[in-house]
Amino acid sequence: MRRPSVLLATCAVLAAMPSGAHADIVTAGETVAGSFVISGVGNITTGILSLQNDGTQSGSSFVGPGGIPNQSQGNVDTGGNPARTATPLISTLGWSSGADVGIAFAPNQQGSALGITINSLVLTLFNGSTGAALTSFPLASGSSIDFSLVGNPGTANNFFALGLSAGERAQFDAILAQNPDVAIRAGLASTMTGANAGADRLLGFDLADVTILGPSNPALIPLPASLPLFAGGLAFVGLLGWGRKRKSTASVLAA
Length: 255
Fold this sequence. Notes:
Blueprint: E1 7-8, E2 25-27, E3 36-38, E4 47-51, E5 55-64, E6 68-74, H1 90-93, E7 101-106, E8 115-127, E9 133-138, E10 145-148, E11 158-164, H2 166-178, E12 184-195, E13 200-206, H3 227-254
Antiparallel strand pairs: 1-3, 2-11, 3-11, 4-13, 5-6, 5-12, 7-11, 7-13, 8-9, 8-10, 8-12
């Protein structure tokens, strides 16, 4: 059953994603601003990786040899119930196809310095029985996603939605088809800069359960208060010019 649709807005965001190299993990709403989600449903609770440090922070969640789940290393936050850093089964996440793969980034920055950048992010699928990595989906080499926050999402209800690019959705589907009887788990590895104090969480969710309005949504681009007056002025000037031209043409014909 599909959960209620969510609303995307940029009232709390000023951000941009650099263009360039091909990426496997992309912003689900085409841009960072278009991928900010205010869900209000409180049902995205399955953590994969939570990092907490000042300045630069990095860490990963993975399945250990022999299929030992929920292993981690680095500046990870392992608290919470359910755990904020874990390697959940993709069936738990609702990832039955590449189109379902959703990663929610819920930064929790403190104080006046609210900028944070994901410099690297890799999603890895593990064989839950052996711990072997089946495949990985990274950000493009050398690229990053810059989140310059005016407000502070800070909860799993408010987050930035990330997903797989079109080609990698097909790769995800192929991995599932090749391993029909394998319990597949998801892990993440990431490095972020500009972090301060708060735990910055990456959670898994079913992307098909949210509505990505993206940059085409008129609500994403609030008009300045003066713009309607400016537009009205342009319309008046245009109408005035048309009237003068018509009067001039009539005078020539009369002559």
